[in-house]
Amino acid sequence: MPDLPTRPPRRTEETAPFWDACAQHRLVLPRCVTCTQLIWYPRRFCPACGSTDIVWEQMSGNGSVYTFTVVRRGQGPYKDVAPYVLAYVELDEGPRLLTNVVTDDVESIRCGQRVRVRFDAAGDSDAIPRFEPVGTSGNDSV
Ligand SMILES: [Zn+2]
Which of 44, 48, 126, 131 is a Cys-bridge partner for 115, taking CB atoms 3.0 to 4.6 Å apart? Predict the structure, then answer.
């Protein structure tokens, strides 16, 4: 499968720590100090309790496919890379990220499939998180 297109992320004040960590191949999410809830998508305040006391915490990078679709006709920069998998990955820590599951065998992907984060270079020094299957039904199967 050809590499999925990547473009450098657009940083905002809220997302800059996330993208800075991705550039170092680390997946971090904000956590509310007051009520301990993980926050996704990054915000300046906790959507659960309104607190602005937020710390960035490293995630394990492990998760599972919550739901997904196989895109068979991509558009724009994705025109030549279909089929590919667009998925919500539920991190082991709880939050669900809209992302790609990168695999040569899109038909092997199932809900519940275990996946692990990887970082694809984007632009000069950035990277974006995607996921790849781990375990028996992933990249090691033929
Ligand atoms: Zn909170």
Answer: 131
Ligand 1 is an ion; residues with CB less than 5 A from it: 32, 34-35, 37, 46, 48-49, 51
Question: pLDDT tens-digit profile of 7-39?
Answer: 889 999 999 999 999 999 999 999 999 999 999
- Cβ-contact 78, 84 below 8 angstroms: yes
CB atoms within 10 A of CB 62: 16
Q: How many Å lie between the centroid of ligand 1 and the Cα of residue 55? A: 11
Instruction: State pLDDT tens for residues 44-65.
Output: 999 999 999 999 999 999 999 9
Residue 125 CA to residue 24 CA, distance in Å, equals: 9
Distance 46 CA to ligand 1 centre (A): 5
Q: Which domains does the chain have, with CATH numbers?
A: 13-58 (no CATH), 60-136 (2.40.50.840)
How many angstroms does the Cα of residue 41 sit away from the middle of ligand 1?
Answer: 14
